[in-house]
Design a protein that fits this description.
Shape: elongated
Structural class: alpha/beta
Helix content: 25-40%
Number of domains: 2
Number of helices: 13
CATH architecture of the largest domain: 2-Layer Sandwich
Largest sheet: 4 strands, mixed
Strand order of the largest sheet: 1-2-4-3
């Protein structure tokens, strides 16, 4: 009989539900992992085996097959360790199968069974809420994921804690949301003396959410003024903060699970690659444009950015 747990695969900033199926059948002892896994996911079976050994759980002398469905969706990242372990424990009747089928999990396993934090806990919590399931993630990710109030978040420190929770030996309390980052040390427009016309232009741009092109000689204060623009923008609304934090979660920019209400400010150097600015590359990571979502993107030396002059000539 097949046991199931669930996790997510990331496509850009979106989290797609992935079903982790485990079948333990008679045959030569083997541990197979299928479903288009990358190298990090393929290595999960060794981490899972070592973590179970640390808990004094021996794998049976049977054929163990793990399938990650849908099988045509690429699977990347070490966060598949925990759901694979949970599905396997359910197949061995150590964990209740019906409970695992209501669980979305992500987390990397150490060889001693402790859970290592991973990226994307916030998008995973949103996906779990949409699927009406609970989320299990490492303790370090719990405060971040708990911001999605529609999903119950369990944040164990080890795989043993997770087993004890689902078997009723030691039930864990649901994770609490992290602290909201306060506006401390932010650059303030009141520190600028003079530059009245430039400050007035910033205020108009902030009030109307306009783009702004600053032209001037080096040292005239363009970068200084741009860095203070977020300080006169209103704090992020709750929906905006969650949306922005989802992107920052995938880029590992959230500190201790706290969601920021500050407008992001990004100022990439003009020598940055196109992938670093617009995103993409292996795993489709967010670029500077995405990281500045709902905030300020400052492109200093704008004509020097790759592709800008070519497109300008075409226009």
């Amino acid at each position: 009989m097949v046991a199931r747990a669930y996790t997510v695969a990331f496509e850009g900033v979106e989290a797609r539900i992935v079903e982790v199926q485990c079948a333990v059948s008679p045959g030569l002892p083997a541990f197979s992992l299928v479903g288009l896994p990358d190298k990090a996911v393929s290595e999960a079976k060794e981490r899972v085996r070592a973590a179970l050994t640390a808990m004094s759980i021996a794998l049976p002398s049977k054929r163990i097959t793990i399938n990650l469905s849908p099988a045509d969706l690429p699977k990347e990242g070490s966060h598949f360790d925990l759901p694979i372990a949970l599905a396997l424990l359910a197949a061995l009747d150590i964990l209740p199968r019906d409970t695992m089928e209501e669980t979305v999990a992500l987390g990397e396993l150490s060889l001693d069974g402790s859970l290592v934090p991973v990226i994307g806990a916030l998008p995973a919590a949103l996906a779990a809420a949409e699927a009406d399931r609970r989320l299990v993630c490492p303790r370090a990710c719990g405060a971040e994921a708990a911001w999605v109030g529609a999903a119950e978040v369990i944040a164990p420190a080890t795989l043993l804690d997770c087993v004890n929770h689902f078997t009723g030996r030691k039930v864990l309390a649901a994770a609490e949301p992290g602290e909201v980052e306060e506006r401390s040390g932010a650059r303030d427009l009141r520190d600028v003396k003079g530059q009245e016309r430039a400050k007035r232009a910033l205020e108009i741009a902030a009030a109307g959410r306009h783009h702004l092109l600053m032209v001037g000689t080096p040292g005239s204060g363009k970068s200084m003024l741009a860095a203070r623009l977020p300080g006169i923008l209103p704090p992020l609304e709750a929906a905006e903060a969650l949306e922005t934090s989802m992107i920052h979660s995938l880029a590992e920019l959230l500190d201790e699970g706290g969601i920021s209400r500050l407008r992001p400010y990004r100022a990439p150097h003009h020598t940055a690659s196109m992938a670093a600015i617009v995103g993409g590359g292996k795993g489709a990571k967010p670029g500077e444009i995405s990281l500045a979502h709902n905030g300020v993107l400052f492109l200093d030396e704008f004509p020097e950015f790759p592709g800008i002059m070519e497109q300008t000539h075409q226009i």
